[in-house]
Amino acid sequence: MPPRVLLDEAAIHDHVERVGADIARDHADGVVLVGVLKGALIFLADLARSIRDVDVTVDFISISRFAPDSGRVKILHDLALDIRDRDVVLVEDIVDTGLTLAYLVGQLSARSPRRLSTCAMLDRPSRRIVPQTLDYCGFELDGEYVLGYGLHVRDLYRNVRSVVAADRDVLVTEPDAYVDDLYRRPDLPSEGGGRVTPSTSEEP
């Protein structure tokens, strides 16, 4: 199955602008954006630029994968900033099970921010294990496996400007299977259906 565009550049831009405006409205005294590496990097860069007339500080955090048997995880890269008594928005690329988000919310909450909110470009609530909700979200997905705009397979496709649906089974055996499609074809088919839903940000 060839990849197909779920969200093109224009759709991404419009909804990043919307999320940025919501964050600016709710954090008029300034905000710290904490991006989860590496996936959230591109989204966070665009998001920071969309937050206007508000002081924005950026920092990053990275954690290991959850160990299959123990469920343990560790922080690989920690914040350089002290977030005590500051407004913080934790920024993810995509939220699936909610395990990573719940872990990071716990870690950051322990550092006594004045206010801690959560944000993701993409949300797939059908896969939730932990009942973790988002304060700000761009789009809600169904079951699609997606690439582009920070999302990757073995570090490929992060810089694809759209979010595309792909065949996971193909990529497991051949990670570079879509290189020609995603880097050399300007005419990928669009989804055209209601499988991606713009999310309405909740009031934190």
Task: Tell me what you see in this structure.
The chain has five helices and ten strands. The chain is globular and about 50 Å long. It has a domain at 9-144: Rossmann fold, CATH 3.40.50.2020. Mean pLDDT is 88; it is low at 200-204. With 204 residues, it is an alpha/beta fold.
Task: List the keywords.
single chain, 204 residues, alpha/beta, Rossmann fold, 7-stranded mixed beta sheet, 5 helices, 27% strand, globular, disordered C terminus
Which CATH first-tier class of the domain at 9-144 would you pick? Alpha Beta
* Overall number of strands: 10
Give the helix/strand class: alpha/beta
The ordered H/E elements are EHEHEEEHEEEEHHE
Number of helices: 5
Rg (CA only):
17 Å
Topology, pairings included?
Layout: E1 4-7, H1 9-26, E2 31-36, H2 41-50, E3 56-63, E4 75-77, E5 87-95, H3 99-109, E6 115-123, E7 136-141, E8 145-147, E9 163-166, H4 168-173, H5 179-184, E10 196-198
Parallel strand pairs: 2-3, 2-5, 5-6, 6-7
Antiparallel strand pairs: 1-9, 3-4, 7-10, 8-9
Helix pairs in contact: 1-2
Describe, in short, the structure shown.
With 204 residues, this protein is of the alpha/beta class.
